[in-house]
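Protocol step 4 of 6: structure prediction from sequence.
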Amino acid sequence: MMTGRTSTELIDEILTYPFAPIILDEVNKALEEERIRRQQFYDDITPSMKAEFINGEVIMHSPVRKAHHDAVFLLAKMLDTHVRRNKLGFVGTEKIMISLTRNDYEPDVCFFKKEKTDTFTKDQCIFPAPDLVVEVLSKSTAKNDRTTKYNDYEIHGVQEYWIIDPKKEVVEQYRLNEEGKYELILKSGEGTIECEATEGFKIDIQAIFDEDIHFEMLSKLLNTLK
């Protein structure tokens, strides 16, 4: 999670240095070089690649473990059923690339409200900040999920951020408060979880990890279609 000084505090500190203009020039030069690398990333990436651009670096992702895949698949299926049934917007999984101010991510699961999806085109492949992001932890991604992405999603107004630990079968649910900061709403492996970003979506947490509970939950969601 975000630690340390705020951006205002960092700026105030830099302005105490007599060589502040030199620092600014070096930062601008570095950001311009990063912009060029980011454009190259856009040019090189293919639909078969699972890759992200984070703080100037291209991060390639290796194949996921079954527990990771199952958590993504089961949650996305329930969420998509609810969203389509109620015409709430659009649910994306893994290969949906979102482009923020500096970084590009491919969240495990994300949701965009209808007012955003109404502006999307069928050929669109780069998307704005979602209203819900879900990241499923793996050994290689956990640090970024809990720091860089957490901070980025918060700053860009992603209403809810879920972090799922498929090994421990625990979900952490963060939601923006009135100050625009993430607040931990729930951390649990049992009971229910309700998503404020996707109105009316409430499921048993174990439905994300247990197929039998998942199918029971999905049946309830599908019954609302009748």
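Step 5 (inspection) to follow. The chain has one domain: 45-223.
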